[in-house]
Every structure is written in structure tokens, then in C-alpha cells.
Amino acid sequence: MKTRYSTLVDLKKNKVQKSEHVVQKANADLNSAATALQLSYNSLNDIESPQSGFVSNYLASRTLLDVVRDSIKHNKEWVGFAKKQVELAKEQLKLDMIEHEKFKYLDLQEVNEMVKKIKQEELKELDEVALMAFIRK
User: Fold this and answer.
1) Which residues contact 26 (CB under 8 A, 6 or more apart)?
2) What pLDDT digit, counting tens, does each position of 89-103 carry?
3) 66, CA 20 to 30 Å: which among 22, 31, 42, 102?
4) Is the CB of residue 19 less than 8 Å from the CB of residue 93?
5) What is the set of domains in the chain, with CATH numbers?
6) 0.90 exceeded by the pTM?
């Protein structure tokens, strides 16, 4: 049965689905950030310090270490940002689900009221038919 809340329920359901998609995307971004951070740490472990040689080799190694450390710092910030985005997306999904459930409940209540009215009308009609049958006898 269609009620005045049916379209709102559909709209809220679509909003919940969009929020679920946002949460999935945020989780994917978080996974990407975590992977990038792990790769940065691995590249830091792969750098070997020169034990002997020219000063330019030391300077190049030092510059490479600075670049990798900056990369690690950037990726840590990215992971933190991605975690915040996941939390915000989950909160929005929770709110959207609550709204959806509210309108679903209201829709169900209105359907129950409609069913109750229909049953009452059927009872009245049956009473009238029974009364007419009784009068004819």
C-alpha cells in the first residue's frame, strides 16, 4: 500500500545507500594511505648508508633519507585524515539509517491504520448484509 511516507522511505533508503558508498570509498582511501605509509617505511629500510667514499655520496644519502622521511610524514598525515573521513562517513551513515528507520516505522504505522479501517468497513458491510438477510426472513 502506498502511504504519504512511502516516497520519503524510498528517498531515505537512497540516501542510506549513498552513505554506504561513501563509507566504502573512505575505507578504500584509508587502505591506500596505509599501503603508501608501509611502502614508505619499506623504502626507508632499503636505504643503505655509505660506509666509505666521497662526501657527495654521504650528501646524496642524507638527501634521500630526508625525502623518505618527508614522505613518511606526509603519509602519516594522510592516514590520519583518511581515518577522520571514515569516522565522519560512518557517523553520517548512522544518522541516515536512523532517519530511514523512523520513516519506515511511520509508514508501517500508517499501513496498519489503513488495514484496521478496511477491516472495520468490512465488518460494517457484513453487519448490514446480515441485517438485511435477517429482515427478509
Assistant:
1) 82, 85, 86, 88, 89
2) 999 999 999 999 999
3) 31
4) yes
5) 6-136 (1.10.287.1700)
6) no
